[in-house]
Amino acid sequence: MYKLFAVFSGVLIALMVTCNGSLSRNIGDELSLIVIHLLGLITIVGILIIRKKDVPKLKNIPIYLFSAGALGVFMVFSNNICFNYLGVSLTLALGLLGQSIASCIIDHFGLFGMEVSKFKKEKLFGFILIFIGIISMVIY
């Protein structure tokens, strides 16, 4: 079930990058970031109201975990810029390569409190396939 949900998440990311990039092309990079994140805030507030959830307590949470919001702004900003020069497919392919590399490093060293999951050399085959796919996307 969770694997299917992860695939659905990937579909949403492709739709998000397309919509965000098109919005950025029409109203500019900075204004699009404001609109995107303002609508995200309104959406999550609506979800909290509908589900009748209280805002959770923020005590005992490491301060670095709050950097995710700023990282999200930089991610959307860079996606918007890349979308306009590379298109959706190449932007997402390169982004997924970056995510895969970063996630392997985080797993291998157990960063951010994650359980250690050592890198296995068999994963290199997957990285090679991704790299070949990206090269073919760039060439063709």
TrEMBL record:
Name under which the protein is recorded: Transporter family-2 protein
A Pfam family of this chain: DMT_YdcZ
Species, as recorded: Maledivibacter halophilus
InterPro entries from the UniProt entry: YdcZ
Organism domain of life: Bacteria
Transmembrane segments: 31-50, 62-86, 92-112, 124-139
Signal peptide segment: none
Record carries keyword Transmembrane: yes
Keyword annotations: Membrane, Transmembrane, Transmembrane helix
Gene Ontology CC terms, in alphabetical order: plasma membrane
